[in-house]
Amino acid sequence: MFSIPALFLAAALTLQTAETSVVEITFDVGVGEGVIMAALFDSEDAWDGGGAAVRGVRIDVAGGERVARFEGLPPGDYALRAFHDVNGDGEMNANPFGMPTEPFGFSNNAVGNMGPASWDRARFAVPGETRQTITLR
Hints:
There is one protein chain. By secondary structure, the protein is an alpha+beta fold. It is 18% helix and 37% strand.
């Protein structure tokens, strides 16, 4: 039979050996105001609207921030979408035809065709520490 300290030790060893990854995204922006809203997804279903993002972040561009760092992720495939909320209203603004009027971007600097980039274009493997630069246009 295990004593309580032995159980804690076993749990601690399990946590130390569990593989985790880090994703660091640097955003290239045109203006130094507003915030960047970004969401990280771990499946095509979630990316296409069938689930939630695994992580989200708000980056204060006006305060000089340009980097999002997601830690403690299991290795796997991920994709990120982001927009630069230049006016700070918390929404991605669009014209009457639904075209975005604020800069946006996707991981791999993927480009969509009459809509957001596909999972296949935006997806990237995360085997450990992974870095990307995304240009928001």
